[in-house]
Structures are given as structure tokens and as C-alpha cells.
Amino acid sequence: MTGCIACASQGEQFRDYAGYQLLRCANRSCRHVWVSNVPSPQTLHDFYNTSENHLWNGDPFGMLEDYRANPDGVRRFFDRDRLRWLMKYLPAQLGTLETKFLDLGCSSGVFLAALRDIGYRVAGQDIAPEAVERGKRELHLDMKSQPFEEFTPDAIPDVVTGYNVIEHTPDPLSMVRHVRSWVEPGAAFVLRTPNHASWLRRATGAAWLWYMPPAHLHYFTPASLTVLLEKGGFQVKALRTDIGTYLFLLAYYFLPAKGRKSPSTSLSMSRARERWIFGLEKVVRCCASPLLVPAALLQANPLIEIYAIAR
After folding, report:
1. In a domain? residue 57
2. 83: in domain
């Protein structure tokens, strides 16, 4: 792919990374970045069909064990990390427990289980069959292991979520158009993805954490993600950038689990420790506010979260 998937401008050589060529959109108001030599579908299937390739909070089996050990704690994490923002930006869509959620890239379904515990109706899709099968078996969820191109939901969803999934997709525009074909006007589509226009990416350069092909194939800016959703049949209702779980991990670093030399990233913890972690995160966020607040106004914090409505 030599043209920008968002604005269709020509791509220019940006950098080589571990054998992959990254191109950058020549349009300065877009600046989308993508991998030009995308691996074959079989290579990607083999890559995701293993438990060896996952990041913190993306480990399907670790998260599943956390939920089984401490479901209340995991629900509180998702409430802070996702649900409060969904309720803020999508009050109409979440105003009834009849709301039907579809989570793309659902892994073993722990987020879906947390939503179901509240009372929402849930379903999920992921390309990793091992994670999906274990989640279906242990959490009794409606999930399918299929590429989104082959997937069709059994029920029309009211809210489709994709947390840290669109950057993994070889053809994000096709993904957005598929989602639009599943929903009715007024349905919501929520995406979270790393922000290539962030101060963290600029500060770390080639060492930026999220340069990781073939896992990540597209690197969005707020502008490129907005254009992509509008091309795919959605109207952007709200866009925010935040530092998200970076601060949560930093709080872990300052409060390592008892008996450990390094911080634990398990979400299963005592209520007292949880309060300390969340409290320390608030302190760190407050201390960092001279940087985070202006960056939020400039849409330059490390993570993009976007809320769109189907036209």
C-alpha cells in the first residue's frame, strides 16, 4: 500500500523497523503512518494463534485468571478505564440494560464479562481461536473466532467497541465499513489506539513502545482516525487523548507487590492495595497535569479514544 488509507495522499518513506517499511502520509494535516509490506494473512494468523505474543492487559489467559480470582476488582478497573467514558460520551446508547455491545478484538472476553455482570447484552469477535475458545468455555460468552471480514453478528449491536485493535488491522477502512454495515443509524462505534502525534512518540523517537510490526500495522493521528471514520459512514461525536494505563503502570512501579522485586501487572489484588494503586495514580496524574492538560487540548497525549455515531 503506497497511498494513505485515510486521506488518500501519497506516502513517503518514514523509517525501517525490524524488516518492515513504514510510510508516512505526505499530507501534513493527516500524517498517518503505516506498514507498506504487510505480512500475509497466514503469517498474521499464525502470529496471533499463540499465547507468546501479547502485551500487558492484552494477555488473554492472565486477564482471565485475574477475573476468576477477583471479578469485583477487574470490574472496578474497567469502570475507571472504559465505562465512565462510555457513560460520559454515550449516555443515550448506555441508558438501558437492553443495550447490546459488540467488542472487536475481545480476546478471552473479560471486558465482555464485566459488561454482562452489569446487565448489558454482549457478544465478541477475535481472530485468536485459542483465547476465544477458552473464554467461551470458562465465561460462557457469545464470541466468535473469525476475521472481521467473515464475521456477522447474530444481533444488531447498539455499541461496537474496539480497544487497541484497529492498529492491528491490515485494512482499517474495510473494518470501519464492515462495522457500519452491521449497525443501524445512531449506533455508536468506540475506538482506542496509540497516538502517533503524541508527545511521547516525539520524545522517544524510534524507541516508541508501539512500533511493533507485524502486530501494529497502522499508526493513527487524531486527524487520520477522524477522516477514516467519516469515510466509513460515521460522524465523530467526541475525541479525547489521554495517558491511560501508562500512569496505572507507573503506580504499579512505585508499589510493587509484596515479595516481588519487580512490579506485578495482575489486576487481581487486595482491596487495600487497589485503593493505594488508584490513589497513587491520581497523585501522579495531578502532578503531571501541567503537561497532560495542554497536551489534551492539543490532542497530543499518548492514547486516542474516539466516539462516533453511525450516519
Report:
1. yes
2. yes
Peptide bond into 214 cis (omega under 30): yes
Instruction: Tell me if 52 is assigned to some domain.
Output: yes
Return the H-helix or E-strand segment holding 239: strand 234-242
> For 125-172, how does the pLDDT look when each residue is reduced to its tens digit (9 = 90+)?
998 888 899 999 999 999 999 988 899 999 999 999 999 999 999 999
Residue 67 lies in a domain: yes
List the domain range (segments joined by +) for residue 154: 41-163
Distance, in Å, from the CA atom of 28 to the CA atom of 129, rounded to the nearest integer, reads 40
Exposure class string for 61-88: b at 16+ Cβ within 10 A, else e: ebbbbbbeebeebbbbbbeebbbebbee
Query: Does residue 78 contact residue 136 with C-beta atoms inside 8 Å?
Result: no
Asked if residue 141 and residue 46 are part of one domain, the reply reads yes
pTM over 0.90: yes
Question: How many structural domains compose the chain?
Answer: 2
Gap between the Cα atoms of 232 and 230, Å rounded: 5
